[in-house]
Write a structure and sequence with these properties.
heterodimer, A: six-stranded mixed β-sheet, four-stranded antiparallel β-sheet, 9 helices, 10 strands, 37% helix, 24% strand, B: Transcription Regulator spoIIAA, four-stranded mixed β-sheet, 6 strands
Chain lengths: 254, 373
């Protein structure tokens, strides 16, 4: 199977600080890959490199077979991105935010566009009463859902989530995890997700990539839990993580 | 009857519609057309046969579902059969969602309007509506948007409205007051020589050639230069710029170009308004305080200044506008990490654009003098 995202020999260096040192990572079709790592290990830099928003020092990245180049349009029609803060366009309403990608990439009739956008809002678990609101009128959790709806607008093949549950209360975070699982099960989606939330990691991911020393250690949850790397041991060894590991594994995948 | 996406067969008890090819997002327009042609004239039930379907996604399933709903409204039953499991889940999803939506709509009944509030609101709305109409036109152009070019056009109109139309009152008031000041100051000196009629020359020439455009430009630098820097800077901090790029839009095209274009259109227009208001300010003093008859004032303005003076001022306006817009947007795009930096760069944008305006004005004066205009 061709990987959806292939990162080979990625190097990112800022001055003397080497963030990625020949990193290799493949994301396979239909999987949910969780990306973890301590502060400064370059999770966001990696995501930005994949999206073409960051110029890597060297290395090659392909997404859906297309080579990514800095600030050049990538496979924009086939990927969806949920930025950490939502990154909704503040001058447009919720509905317009979701419609914008559709308007850009399709010439479907206006009415169908409206309906499809509404549908995506519903899929993201929102009520249509928010459609005419502006992003500033929404709560953080709702903004993330709108952003998810926008990311889903073009029926993407791959979805990038940057800390989707950060800043949400535990109830909202659990709901968001459920939503991600639902979408993953029902749409033919590949998901790559940066997260700090161990519940979310165990609750949604098939495989985990841990960024350590400029490289990625990749494996299933069990493999990672048994890995003898020091950082991994201390990260998953803390009580919060142990508790999450014992309860959180997706029932259908345990 | 058949086309690339479906094939209709008429049976004695039903209309069988065989679906084929890819019912996906990219083909939605064609799918809409195709499904619209499915008409059951004699009320026979329609059966969508999905066995031949290659691929279907939410958008395609929606078109299918939407048609079946439309048929239901006409009293025609429709059914789906032969779905592959992995395809059917999309349709099932839609049906679930649509059920939620109908439930949702029931809840969203508008609360009854309160009469008193209503009437006050109406008064406010009527006064605002003249302005809002323009905003609405811009918005509806944006609404019809499909491709970046139309989006840029819509944004440009919005910017002309924001930076130009909305600045008219303040620019006119400022210019009017400066007109008064100029005329007053001149009259104090010129009256000593019994040459008070030259007050008109001084006020009209200086306003048309210099003050009108400078006042408008400085006001716009403070109003819109800072707004550009702050807006783009905030968008940068909110990752909105990144989001645009990821959607395949070039932020420079869609945010920077409309602002530059909008201001280049708006500032000459504002300059005209400033010119008119400035001369009116001068007229107030000349006619009211110096006892120059109105007719004589008008004659003197015509005699002292000509089309050249007006054009000198207006020629400078687009250049000033360009400087303001480029400085503002550039500084905004340079914001990278913090709100503090955003504030600093916004200030920089205003200070630098006003400085650049003055420098450019000096150059223009030299050039125009050399050319003898």
């Amino acid at each position: 199977m061709e990987p959806v995202v292939r990162i080979s020999n990625l190097v990112n260096r800022f001055g003397d600080n080497v963030v990625h040192d020949g990193l290799n990572l493949d994301v396979m079709p239909d999987e949910t890959l969780g990306l973890v790592g301590g502060s400064g290990t370059g999770k966001s830099v990696l995501l930005r490199s994949i999206l073409g928003l960051q110029k890597p020092t060297s290395g090659e990245i392909t997404v859906l077979g297309q080579r990514i180049e800095y600030l050049k349009p990538g496979p924009t029609r086939h990927w969806g991105v949920l930025f950490q803060g939502g990154a909704l366009l503040s001058g447009l309403t919720v509905q317009e935010n979701v419609e914008l990608p559709i308007a850009l990439h399709s010439d479907m009739p206006l009415e169908t566009r409206h309906e499809l956008a509404s549908l995506k809002l519903l899929m993201a678990g929102l009520s249509l009463s928010v459609a005419d609101k502006y992003p500033s009128e929404l709560s953080g959790g709702m903004r993330k859902r709108v952003s998810l709806a926008r990311a889903l607008a073009l029926e993407p093949k791959i979805l990038f989530l940057d800390e989707p549950t950060a800043g949400l209360d535990p109830i909202a975070a659990t709901e968001f995890d459920k939503l991600v699982n639902y979408l993953q099960d029902n749409l033919d989606l590949t998901i790559m997700m940066i997260t700090h939330d161990v519940d979310s990691l165990f609750g949604t991911c098939d495989r985990i990539a841990v960024l350590v020393d400029g490289n990625a250690i990749v494996g299933t949850i069990d493999e990672i839990l048994e890995h003898d790397n020091e950082w991994i041991q201390s990260y998953f060894g803390v009580p919060r993580a142990r508790r999450a590991a014992s309860t959180g594994v997706r029932p259908d995948r345990a | 009857m058949e086309n690339a996406y479906l094939q209709v067969e008429k049976h004695h008890d039903s209309l069988k519609v065989g679906l084929r090819n890819d019912w996906v997002f990219d083909n939605v327009s064609d799918l809409e057309e195709a499904t619209a042609s499915v008409v059951s004239s004699d009320g026979l039930p329609v059966i969508f046969q999905c066995g031949g379907l290659q691929d279907i996604d939410i958008a395609g399933a929606w078109v299918l579902y939407d048609r079946s709903q439309q048929l239901a409204e006409l009293g025609i039953k429709s059914d789906f059969e032969g779905f592959k499991a992995e395809h059917f889940k999309f349709l099932r999803n839609i049906i679930d969602m649509a059920a939620i939506r109908e439930f949702d709509e029931d809840l969203d009944d508008e609360p009854p309007p309160r009469p008193l509030h209503g009437s006050i609101e109406r008064v406010g709305q009527n006064t605002l509506s003249a302005f809002e109409d323009i905003g609405f036109i811009a918005r509806s152009i944006l609404d019809g948007t499909r491709r970046p070019l139309t989006l840029i056009l819509g944004e440009t109109i919005k910017q002309v409205y924001e930076t130009g139309v909305r600045a008219i009152p303040i620019v006119m008031i400022m210019s009017f007051l400066i007109g008064i000041v100029l005329a007053y100051q001149a009259s104090a000196q010129l009256e000593q020589f019994g040459a008070k009629i030259f007050v008109v020359d001084l006020a009209s020439i200086s306003i048309l050639r210099e003050m009108g455009v400078l006042l408008a430009a400085v006001m716009v630098a403070g109003r819109s230069g800072s707004a550009f820097a702050a807006a783009l800077g905030t968008m940068k901090l909110n990752e909105e710029i990144d989001a645009l790029r990821v959607l395949g839009l070039n932020p420079n095209q869609i945010l920077v170009v409309p602002r530059i274009l909008g201001l280049v259109i708006a500032l000459p227009m504002l300059t005209l308004f400033a010119d008119v208001a400035g001369i009116l300010g001068g007229a107030l003093i000349a006619i009211g305080s110096l006892d120059i008859p109105t007719v004589q004032f008008v004659e003197r303005v015509k005699y002292a200044s000509d089309m050249n003076d007006l054009m000198v001022g207006l020629t400078k306006a687009p250049f000033f506008a360009f400087l303001i817009a480029v400085t503002g947007t550039l500084r905004g795009m340079q914001v990278e990490h913090s709100a503090e930096q955003l504030g600093r760069l916004t200030t920089t944008a205003v200070v630098q654009s006003i400085f650049l305006i003055i420098v450019a004005d000096a150059y223009f004066t030299i050039i125009f003098t050399r050319l003898g205009i």
